[in-house]
From TrEMBL:
Pfam families: zf-dskA_traR. This is Zinc finger DksA/TraR C4-type domain-containing protein. GO terms for molecular function: zinc ion binding. The keyword Metal-binding applies.
Amino acid sequence: MTTLPTTDLQEIAQKLKARQQELLHEIATAEADIEAAAQTQEALDPEELAQRQEAKEVRLGEIARDRNELASIGRALARIEAGDYGVCVACGKPIAKERLLARPESTHCIACKAELEAQA
């Protein structure tokens, strides 16, 4: 069960939803850029084609990263709705408010996150 006040939860939910909209816009823009580049490849020399392919791969990587972040945001919003937001999934202790304000999609407290990173 969350230990954050309702006003904090509302602030965090607003941040998450705003970031969600930014990411959706970024994904749409990247996909449009890829499509536009694909339409104009027929008259390019091999070097230009290679550069475009590299740019496409970078954009696809950005899209994948943005989709992963969108999924994390969706899970955080679901935890807010379920009433278990702000609780570490590893130890069950509350996640510090400061951490949640800085990284609203956090699922681990600082101690558990540090332990996970040390194991990696």
